[in-house]
Give the backbone structure.
Amino acid sequence: MRITLDTIVKDNDPILRTKSEDVALPLSLEDRQLLNDMITYVRDSTDPELAELYNLRPAVGIAAIQVGVPKKMLAVVIHEEEETIEHLLVNPRIVSNSAQYAYLKMGEGCLSVVDEHQGYVPRAARITVEGFDALKNKMVRIRARGYEAIVLQHELDHFKGTLFYDRINKEEPFKEIEDALIID
Ligand code: NI
């Protein structure tokens, strides 16, 4: 079933705060279908014609809980100058992270969040993630830095029911973060 902006759970729905569970491997047909729907959404969302046709809001990632399924699955598609980075991960977890922080200068957004929440979202500048890659059909270890690391951490937060604005300093949303990598 095609995921559209209408089928995405918004943050006024408490289900978004549900903790996601591990997924059984090998993948069931149902889980594989959902993963396929998730990556299709993210891939198509940045194509202006498809986005218009199917009512997609541009995104770089989605987690299964955002379509109401509390399972540890995420899809990420990042277009860089030279290449496109795609991750379709099952049961991913962070096995190590840098002490140094990074944040997006413009703040973060989320398909489930309609209102604007301004402020810096501190993340680890570098992470190592392990999990099952549903595109490669094998266990993988990913070393990510900068923007890719931030996007992965944002999606992994959804497994805990955490939203990006939970991490913004309430008193001083734009408080400088010492020694942080700032990403434009
Ligand atoms: Ni999100």
